[in-house]
Amino acid sequence: MDNKIIVIGGGVSGLTSALTLQLLGYETEIITDKVAANTTEKRSNPEFASLFPSASIIPHSVYSNRLRELFQRSQSIFYELRKLTFPGVTIHKHYEIFEEQTEQPDYCNWMLNLQPFDELDPEKVPRRPSVNGLCGWAFDCIFADWALYLPFLYELYQQSGGTITQQKLTPEDIANLPSETIINCAGTGSPELFEDPSDQQLVVRGHLLHKPNAPLITNKKDEIISYNFTPKASVYADEDGNACDVYCYPRKDGWILGGSRQEGKRGQTDWKESDESITHKIDGVAFPRQIIDLNKEILATTFDASLNSSNDLQPSVGYRYIRNRTNGLRLESETLDNNQVIHNYGHGGAGVTLSWGCALEIANKLSPKKIHELQGEVIEEIESTLNNN
Q1: Residue 188, strand partner residues
Q2: Which of 75, 125, 245, 381 sits most deeply, having the most CB atoms within 10 A of its CB?
């Protein structure tokens, strides 16, 4: 394994892919123009998705014909990391609740301890006051507490011998990289470096609020509670009239509240802003008023918790690279200038969720070993590192 592997992109996909290969004995180098761990100015980098994850391990807003296998492999590693007390990896009791009848998505069958609505305690279901006829489900889901998880991921990568070089690459640089194997995890920047076969290049813009120092929301079993809640379309909808959800994900450093799903194209800057009468504005950032208004109702009604626009809320706006709605995830290999290039981008809202599954797929393309063998080796190396710290 003398040949160094170059990983382009310093977000969670690039970092996890490089770490996986490093733990399996490869020599890797991440080349990236930004490093999420030390990029403090979020507003100037909305395209850098790893600055904005919630980050629940649920395959939301991602399109792939291999979604189940990639998700379940990733989920399996996250469960192992939790057993090893990997920093930031916890489990939430997560609710997905709707005010109109909604078909259950396939991924619910992949989640642990799925409970249909009629098995849920109605007093514990996130709700707005005086609204009946709800539907939905709950399940246990892994959650990566970003303020803890991401820094340790970087630390583990560097402890394992990986290196990070900050450099903004151009297409002309690619042929001169000192490697016969290149892993492309450049996200929205990928089409600037490599040809992309998709003619859509969709991104979804989302608004988030961080309420620092807010306490964890728990039930009587001491389970941490999070939720996605979708009211009727007449209450909150996108510009096409589709009902939108709001959500709350408690973390050790406070609550992450959202959201919005405004569809556009990669590189778009002329986003249509909502009328001021239906927005709130904090620190110069306008966002749909429902993010505060609906979450405020739900938190007060169900959890006896308060939320006000006067709180010390920190707004941000980030993009999710959907790419296209048929098979947006690009996880494939091609030969360019006699080099092997493996693409790993287009994760939509599931970059963290699929990070380990995609990393294992990349390792499998480079190794004769089977996926389950590679997964076992990665977990053993992480366990050994944690025990030595």
Answers
A1: none
A2: 75
Which of 349, 348, 354, 359 has its CA nearest to residue 323? 348
Q: What is the pLDDT of residue 325?
A: 93
Domain chopping of the chain, boundaries: 5-388
C-beta separation of 319 from 263 below 8 A:
no
Q: Which amino acid is at 175?
A: A
Judge if the upstream peptide bond of residue 300 is cis by omega within 30 degrees of 0. Answer: no
**Which residue shows structure tokens 């290049």?**
201
pTM over 0.85: yes
What radius of gyration, in Å, describes the C-alpha atoms of the chain? 21
Q: Which structure tokens are listed for 174?
A: 């690619």
CA–CA separation, 72 and 240 (whole Å): 32
In sequence order, which residues have a C-beta less than 8 Å from that of residue 111 and are 6 or more positions away? 58, 139, 140, 141
Asked if the model's pLDDT at residue 1 lies above 50, the reply is: no
Strand-pair partners of 206: 318
Cβ atoms of 319 and 203 within 8 Å: the answer is yes
Which residue has 């992450």 as its token pair? Answer: 256
Residue 181 reports pLDDT greater than 90: yes
- pLDDT at position 275 is 64
Contact between residue 16 and residue 24 where contact means Cβ atoms under 8 Å apart:
no
Task: Report the pLDDT averaged over residues 55-78.
Answer: 96
3-state secondary structure of 222: coil
Of 366, 372, 364, 354, nearest to 64 (Cα)?
A: 354
- Angstrom CA distances, 368 to 71, 142, 198, 362, 374, stand at 22, 30, 30, 12, 10
Cα torsion 151, 152, 158, 164: sign: negative
Judge whether 291 and 244 are in contact, CB under 8 Å: no
pLDDT at 7 over 50: yes
Alpha carbon distance 142, 56 (integer Å) = 6
Residue 206 preceded by cis peptide, ω within 30: no
- DSSP character at residue 107: G
- 5-388: what fold? Rossmann fold (3.40.50)
Summarize the confidence of residues 120-138 as an average pLDDT. 93
pLDDT tens-digit series, residues 10-42: 999 999 999 999 999 999 999 999 888 777 777
CB-CB contact of 377 with 359 (8 Å):
no
